[in-house]
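Exercise 7 asks you to align residues with tokens for two separate proteins.
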Amino acid sequence: MLLLTMRMIKIGFRRGAALLAGGLALQFAATAQAQVYRCTDANGNKLYTDMKKGNCELIDSGPVAPRPPAASALIPSVRPNSPAASGAAAATPPPSPSNFPRVDTSQQRARDDDRRAILNEELRAEEKKLADLKTVFKNGEPDRQGNERNYAKYQERVGQMRDDINRTERNIEALRREIANVR
């Protein structure tokens, strides 16, 4: 496919598109294990087909190698009530490789403390932003600005303010969840 795409660039889009279509036809025809013919019409255009008509030459007639199984077929399934499932639940996670980098407990605690401090600072900033937005919003009736003689512009700004308040509230919820997850 990459070769066909590169040829499209070299020879122009129109002829390249025909090559790409031909390549796709080859691919689909090959997966169906059919014979593929390259035919040339009176104008010199090439056509790929599974039926021989006129000036055609056989391109591929051999079977295609089988495709590898899907990823889900490679993962063994364990039924919930089977002995393997109860043993897997009680077993500890597999050990890390010996060359896997280890972090000292005190160093990890310091990293967690730094993370918590950063998240708390972000939470305070979002809470302040929310308070400011609600002050300007005035329960859905903010003051009209001089350039908002048209009521639709005013409604658009109120809607934007409402969206900003909702987004900030979601950010605060997410930050609180994240802080709760820090050990």
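Second protein for Exercise 7:
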Amino acid sequence: MFEPDEELVGRVVRQLRRPVTVDANLDARVMEQIARLPARRAGGATRATWHWLTRPRTVRLSPLSALAIAAVFVAVVLSRPDRLSHPASTGAREFSFVVVAPRAATVSLVGDFNDWDAARTPMQRAGKQASVWTAVLPLTPGRYRYAFLVDGVSWLADPAAPAARDDEFGTPSSVVTVGGS
């Protein structure tokens, strides 16, 4: 294989060990050059970026390329799990949930349909000073357990619906059954 030349290695090491001298006036010359540069206006980079983004361009696509781009766009839109679907297209029916909670500051509807997450279905007051809280949800056919969470601490079963059997947490809940069409 390769055997290093001792003399060459020695010269390289000696060269690397030599002190480097830097011109004492280097900083002053660099700063002088910077001072000569034209002043940039505030927002210059933003303006230049906006101009670049909004500049007219010509894009040429073959029909096959345009079709491929359209197909990818449709696939992305249709595959989004968070997209809103019309209740009729999924077999869902609109259900209104109503509870009377006169002293409540907030009420949330929690249940199997929203993973018992209070933040996903906050209820709205039926009027400005009303003690009636409502929420409307599209539900597909099935059986759902639910409850109302008042002020983030008190669980309340729906007095107008059948009570669910006690769960392992001991919280009151109700049952709604949505039939198919």
